[in-house]
Amino acid sequence: MTEKHEVKYPVTIALKVVMHSKDEAGKNVSDLMEILKNIGIPLRGAVSENKSSAGKYTSYTVPVYVENKEKMYALYEALKAHPDVKFAI
């Protein structure tokens, strides 16, 4: 039997985003903050980052407050459209 889980909005989540690493310090974080700002999703803490062992990718944990399903979908669509985002969960 498959159990169905639904997200109850509003919700604070730890968004995980993996991006291609950049030489320019802070560019990825700046891009993520711009996406959040454009959708109207507030940050709920500090962004943490962790580079892959080879340095090709950087993962970011971004605590965000999402008001509704529409904003959640808009967030994932914007992340999917960004050329440096490998994936987001």
Describe the protein.
This protein is α+β, with helices and mostly antiparallel strands and 89 residues long. The chain has one domain (11-88): 2-Layer Sandwich (Alpha-Beta Plaits). Helix content is 29%, strand content 31%. It has 2 helices and 4 strands, in the order E-H-E-E-H-E. It has helices spanning 27-39, 69-81; strands spanning 11-20, 48-51, 57-66, 85-88. The chain has a 4-stranded antiparallel beta sheet, covered by helices on one side. A hairpin with a 5-residue loop joins strand 2 (48-51) and strand 3. It is globular, with a radius of gyration of 14 Å. The two termini are 24 Å apart. The model has no long low-confidence stretch (mean pLDDT 95).
Write the CATH architecture name. Answer: 2-Layer Sandwich
N-C termini distance: 24 Å
The CATH top-level class label: Alpha Beta
User: If you average the pLDDT, what whole number results?
Assistant: 95
Number of helices: 2
As laid out across the biggest beta sheet, the strand order is: 2-3-1-4
**Helical residues, percent:** 25-40%
Task: Please name the CATH topology.
Answer: Alpha-Beta Plaits
Full CATH superfamily name:
ACT domain
* Content-based structural category: alpha+beta
Rg calculated over all Cα atoms = 14 Å
Q: What's the order of the H and E elements?
A: EHEEHE
Strand content: 25-35%
Shape: globular
Largest sheet: 4 strands, antiparallel
- Domain count, please report it: 1
Q: Which segments are poorly predicted (pLDDT under 50) over 5 or more consecutive residues?
A: none
How many E strands?
4
